[in-house]
Hints:
The structure holds 2 protein chains of 2 kinds. Chain A is α+β, with helices and mostly antiparallel strands. Chain A has one helix at residues 3-29; strands at 50-53, 60-62, 67-74, 76-77, 80-81, 86-94, 100-109, 117-119, 122-128, 135-144, 161-171. The longest helix of chain A is centred in the N-terminal third of the chain and has 27 residues, at 3-29.
Amino acid sequence: MNKRKIFNLSVVTLLFLVLITSMLTSGMLAKYISGKENDENARVATFCVDMKNSTTSLPLVISSSPVSFDVAIVNYTGSNVSEVTSKYEFEVTTLGNLPLKITIVEKSYDGKGTMATINDLLVSNGIMPATEKVEHIFTIIVEWDTTIDNYDDVKYSEEIDLLKVSFTGTQVD
Amino acid sequence: MKNKKHTFIFGFIILFLISMTMISGIFAKYITNINTSNVIKPNSFYFNTNYEADGTYELYSDEITITVSNSYLGNTTEEDINYSVFVKEGENIIATVSGILTQSNGFKEHVLQVEYNKEYKVVIQTTTPFKKTIEHNFITYYSSVDGYYTLTDMGGWIELDLYIGSYVPNSIIINYISALSADNTNPLTTGWYGTQGTISKSLITNNAHYKIVFFKNDSYSYEKVTNGSFTASGLDYSVTITK
């Protein structure tokens, strides 16, 4: 290989390295910016998906009658609406200390997007479209599971349990 | 030729890196994770009786009195309690009574009629909101110790000493002359203003002395002390104080 070819190859290599470095650096320094009107800076689309739990009094007290509370999935915060389509799912779990029967039912669907499907304690594949406020509301009902043997044993009167709702919202496109 | 091959491989690697960098940017997604937790607890539940659970008790009576309560140390059950009381002689249930304790009516007394000189097991069982079982063992005895009373003139007043024997009567009726006034500071005789007073069963127990004072008023002219005894088992006792 003569010197000219070595020189040419070095220049090409250098140019490619500069190009890659520039792209990597631009990606690392990119920041998500919350939506602000009249912001002249370049920004990425606003993403917002949230879960609101209606329980105001804690702890949840189980009596002979069921107790319930609502879980609302929204794609906005105040006046800021998500600018990208969102997908959500959530799952309800307990520690299993109490013989409880938990049921999730659809409470309110505003016709926007795709209401999630409920499969036992997993709510999944809910879609919320971009740029318009959407609210999907579910009701979680907690009651004694009377199908379990000795569900009313006095030992449960001094037991507590923990009901967890694990929610994930994801940008679709 | 060899140099061209190296240049081609080198260029391919560079293009691959550029493509991966661009694709990774395209597939970047926003993700939100939220976890909430709520503590769940049952309604408070308390259910007790006037006897310690699993204890054995000797009673000089043909009655077993069970008082059930829905509270403990100031804490009260937050729901109605449905319960049943079973009296068992051996394996046989000889009596059953059911009841409900509400939040406004936190206790109930059940008087269970049994026989003397026998052994019983009393089982108290709640059905809602939780199942709880309490058991007590009782041995009943008949005692021939009768009750009696003594009247003593103390000068300014007459003192009545009542002794309740083995048997607790339903009530004790005391007749006294108008020249005497019952001591209204005594819980047994509170509200006695005429010439007769009644002591109910709930105020007395067996094998116990009770002293009642009757003050003489101005019309009391002479004294008379009378002693007697209670013998009428199963009937109300009657004490008559006369001049």
